[in-house]
HECT domain-containing protein (Haptolina brevifila), 328 residues
Amino acid sequence: MCKTSAEWTAAEDMELVRLVTASLAHASKPPAKPLPIDKCTPAVVRAAAVDLIHGVENPLFMKLQPRSPDALADRFELLAHFSSHVFEHLIPFVDLSEADVPGTLAFELCSVRGRLLWQNKEMFVRMLNSDKDHCYNIPCFELDRESANGAKELSNSHRMTMQRHGRAKCTLLFEQMQTSLGLFSNQGGEPKDLEARMAQYKSLSYTAEADGGIMAFRIEFKGEQGQDVGGLFRNSMECLIEELSTEALQLLVAVPNGHKDVNGAYEQRGPEVMGRDRLILNPSATSPRDLVNFELMGALLGVAIRSRTPVPLMLATVLLKGLVGQET
């Protein structure tokens, strides 16, 4: 991804972007704003190199003079792909309100602004300046604790049977959030297509600073008084994560050696019991609905990380290593 190397430096990349910008601005009739990026073909870059670098001694492009027109055209094509991918696949998932916090992804993105093409760069600056306003437009979900408590008392298969017959009145908080996000075509129906679901998950990508801390959404509990300034959000996150391993949802199950005795304590099988209270993904959860459940679980874990919210999730070491890309 356009990394600085002994062959190409960041300064050269920035000069190359300025070169093509100047060339397209000069080529427009009359000279004004640069032509669209899609008008910048390799032939245009080669012509710019000949006219503005090799044809005259231009002090603005001194670093590029040793480069051949073909090399400049190839490099610009790479920068164009880099700029496009940054905006399509990276920036939508980055909290730009943290751009001034060293060590964050938003902070690192700011260091590559010089390598972004002009149209993308203008968009980046607008997003950077307006992100603080956007992050306060976080969604608000109304959740029903009483319904969730009733759902926990029923087995998963029993609840699914009742839902298919239209008699289910009890739903977990996790399922209520799925409904609020609109991940399914209808109540108990088929999941929407992946693109539609990804668009819904995007509403959870922003955070807001409140008196009680950082939050990604606001919560109203049905029949309860209270204004969410962070406390209800954190409480709902704890409840949502706890539901992942309940009998009613069963996305997470105990590790195979996580047996308990009649008193509810983990059995002493061997010299120690380290790790026997951990959870792994349920290998039997393979239905389309289960896969959507795992998607929302991942989205909530991302919310917990971005909002710095501790959650009661005791994952097995082998699963944690897989999540962070370490060898198991």
Q: What stands out?
A: Residues 27 and 35 are 8 Å apart (CA to CA). The chain has two domains: 10-134, 140-323.
